[in-house]
Amino acid sequence: MKLTSLQKTAPSVVCPANSHAENFNEQQHNNFDEVKVSAYMSQSYIAVSMNDSVAAIKNNLANILTGDQIPTYLYVIDKDKYLNGLLLMKTLLTSSDELLVSDIMRRDFFSVSPEQSREEVFALLNHCDVDSIPVVEFSKLKGVLRAQDIAELIEDENTQDAHLQGATLPLEVPYMSTSPITLWRKRVVWLLMLFVAEAYTGTVLKAFSDQLESAISLAFFIPLLIGTGGNSGTQITSTLVRAMALGEVSLRNLGAVLKKEISTSFLVALTIGCVGIFRAWILDVGYQVTLVVGLTMMAITVWSAIVSSIIPMVLKRLNIDPAIVSAPFIATFIDGTGLIIYFEIAKLIMTDLA
Amino acid sequence: MKLTSLQKTAPSVVCPANSHAENFNEQQHNNFDEVKVSAYMSQSYIAVSMNDSVAAIKNNLANILTGDQIPTYLYVIDKDKYLNGLLLMKTLLTSSDELLVSDIMRRDFFSVSPEQSREEVFALLNHCDVDSIPVVEFSKLKGVLRAQDIAELIEDENTQDAHLQGATLPLEVPYMSTSPITLWRKRVVWLLMLFVAEAYTGTVLKAFSDQLESAISLAFFIPLLIGTGGNSGTQITSTLVRAMALGEVSLRNLGAVLKKEISTSFLVALTIGCVGIFRAWILDVGYQVTLVVGLTMMAITVWSAIVSSIIPMVLKRLNIDPAIVSAPFIATFIDGTGLIIYFEIAKLIMTDLA
């Protein structure tokens, strides 16, 4: 394996495999959605004063630089930690010795607040080639998000989204150290909520039991129809949720998204409708049921596209992380409503059912 | 909103929103799983020679440093690009002027090969506080993965996993620039594959149509049973797939994972079994069907736990990205097999069905 080329370990390369878990632990009593920037910021930054001279800092570099990495910025603060500006290390290294920090520092800069939520800054940081960001509150420097802190924040947000998309609460510690009891607790909440929502399908089917009894072959297609509806909806939400997390899609795109998704769903509906008719024909269930299956397939596909593109947007609007619209969430929603569509179409087409 | 604190744009902060799309484009004719390190490596590195003096490099810093960030390493290569060593920028800055690069360079270092797949290096890089890595082939320096290249690689792998988990092929360009035809093409492949797999449920139900006809109330619980089985399976795979992507879980943990998941599934099965019995009791379907539903609920939960913990591991073993085991994949698999479990239990319990 080519991986062996990674074997030589330079002593300086620190790999804090579980450091993200510590951040999660600090936060574990909070709502999973409310991890703040303050949980990630570091106190490892180089502070200088406006009146320091370039020569003085340069001569002190060996003491100032703690790790192997050279920070891009030095932070210019006063004795009360008011952040006056940022000084590019590059500017410092290439400036002449007699200059003062105040001559060469930068007075405009990005900053974030320690109270901002991780989700909020994720989309902003994820694409940006930002090396480090000061964390500022009331003009005072509270800490710094270094490159590695930003990477950790992004990784944790991605992990949380991955867990939410699987309809389970995020784990606070790495998987292998999580006990079955904790896993059960993390999962059973969502599972029960989905169960309650899904239980509605029983009510729907009972309501249509007369139709079912007079055409039992309608039952053959129940898993296929609702399954396909759930699958096509899942495709849409997973794409949208990721695009929203990355900041590519926001609420103001709702119209464009709906247009795009409904157009796409017509293409998908045509494809899947034909395949559905073919499947019903193979099962030899008569032309009426075949027609009902084909039409329902198309209707459910379009319906699930509408639902799956609107719900993540609405949640975003309500300030709920759209990542909770997981595949199981969409599938459950489509199951109940899809069955109603199915039997209503059946009642329309199959005259002896109505 | 607190986001306003991010408004001031320092001119040096480059935010190449779509730069990752370019990398994807270069690769779009390849299999989605085979994006290589070479697609991410950069030629922006500082090359020095063994015989350069510290003074010479220091005096030339203003020309050498291209961006604002100060690279952690300089790369010591000869005229044929053989990589002789790495020189810490910090060491350079704090060494006395008369020394040569060969006196202070580091001869042991991490490296990756340009041919390594993105997925392979993802788990290794994700947790590590690695600033930059040389990309080396036959001892020659081919390029460098800088911090921002590593971040981009990680982000793209996360995006691909998010799309695969939604059972859709990854997009090559940002969502808003993707046409409905492309979206259709990306989605319909998986959708049809899932349709074909799911179509099996029709065959199963047709095979059990006698049982269905004699106890139509069995049909009421079909979506609920297979839906819950799919949901509990999805919870497991999504957690496992993420843990595997992060390198927390590997094949050698199979035993431990199975033990953990099966223990958990017994707890979940007990909970969900009770709720299932309660639901059947509310729908007033008789004690036999109620018992069948409760037992099936438990059996399906345990069955889906076994399936969902083994499949991602097996795929990893076959060198297939386990992220393709999406919620729809698991749901489809559980749907068919879950129905068989359901009707076999029904035939055992309900003596008049057998």
UniProtKB/TrEMBL annotation, chains A, B:
- Chief subcellular site? membrane
Please state where this protein is localized.
Answer: Membrane
Instruction: Give the membrane topology.
Output: Multi-pass membrane protein
**GO terms of molecular function:** monoatomic cation transmembrane transporter activity
The record's section on SUPFAM superfamilies has: CBS-domain pair, MgtE membrane domain-like
Q: Does the keyword tRNA-binding apply?
A: no
| Listed GO CC annotations | membrane
**Transmembrane regions:** 188-209, 215-241, 262-283, 289-311, 323-343
Q: Taking every annotated instance into account, which residue ranges of this chain make up the domain CBS?
A: 105-160
Q: Which SMART domains match?
A: CBS (SM00116)
* InterPro entries recorded: CBS_dom, CBS_dom_sf, SLC41_membr_dom, SLC41_membr_dom_sf
Q: What is this protein called?
A: Magnesium transporter
Identify the species of origin. Arsenophonus nasoniae (son-killer infecting Nasonia vitripennis)
In the record, what lineage is assigned to the organism producing the protein? Answer: Bacteria, Pseudomonadati, Pseudomonadota, Gammaproteobacteria, Enterobacterales
Gene label: mgtE
